[in-house]
Amino acid sequence: MKMRIVLASQSPRRKQLLAYIVDDFDIAAADIDETPYKNELPIDYVTRLAKSKAVKVQELGNIDDIVIGSDTAVVCDNEILGKPVDLNDSLQILQKLSGRTHQVMTSFCIIKNQQVVTEVVTTDVLFKTLTDDEIIRYWQTQEPVDKAGSYAIQGIGGKFVTRISGSVSAVIGLPLVELEHALQEILDQ
Predict the structure, then answer these.
(1) Is 166 left (phi over 0), alpha (psi -120 to 50) or beta?
(2) Most exposed among 15, 88, 111, 143, judged by the fewest C-beta atoms under 10 Å?
(3) What would the pLDDT profile of 82-141 be if each residue is shown by its tens digit?
(4) Are 106 and 72 in contact (CB under 8 A)?
C-alpha cells in the first residue's frame, strides 16, 4: 500500500498552504472539542489541538499514513482570542488588539506510525489603532466570522497590520518553513 500524506483539516487556507510544499495529499476532517482547558496555557492549547486532530485522523486511516494536524490561536495578554460569535464579540476582540502587538501561535503535529513530531511557531503581529466604525465595517464583510482573533491577515484584515515579526504563513494557518523541514526529516527516515 502506498504511503499517503493526510491533512487533518478542512481549512481551505491550510489546504492551499500545504499544496505549496506537498504535491499530493488527502484531506480528512478531524472533529474534536476545541474548548480550552481551565488555566491551559495558549502554547499547550495549540499543541494539544494539533496533536488531537492528527491522532483522530490517524486512528481512522492507515497506520502508515503521514498525518498532519494543525491549530492556530490568536493570543493577547496570554488570553486565547477565539472566533467571534457576533458583532459585539468581534468588537471586543478587535478593540483588545487595536494599537497593540499580539501573538499568533500555530502548532503542527506530524504522526507516522508511532513517531510524533510537534512544533509551535509564534509570530508577533502589531495592529494599527482601530475605530469602532472600522471594526463594524469589517464585520459586515463577513470575513472575521470564522476567524480566530476575528481577522484574516491574508484578506481584508491585513490592512490592520502595521508590522509582523515571524512567519506570515503561520499566521494564515501553517508555518511552511518549519513544516517542510519536519516533513523532510520524517520522509528521509
Answers:
(1) left
(2) 88
(3) 999 999 999 999 999 999 999 999 999 999 988 999 999 999 999 999 999 999 999 999
(4) yes
DSSP 8-class letter at 175: -
31, 71, 77, 124: the active-site residue:
71
Indicate yes or no: pTM above 0.90.
yes
Which of 127, 113, 102 is CA-nearest to residue 42? 102
Q: Do the beta carbons of residue 169 and residue 176 sit within 8 Å? A: yes
Q: Are 163 and 144 in contact (CB under 8 A)?
A: no
Q: Contact at 8 Å (CB) between 40 and 73?
A: no
* E strand spans, 53-180: 66-76, 79-81, 101-112, 115-127, 161-165
Q: Is residue 61 very low, low, confident or very high in pLDDT (cuts 50, 70, 90)?
A: confident
Q: Which helix (H) or strand (E) holds 27?
A: strand 26-27
Q: Which amino acid is at 19?
A: A
Distance CA 103, CA 126 (A): 9
| Block residue for cell numbers 494536524 | 69
| 71 labelled catalytic | yes
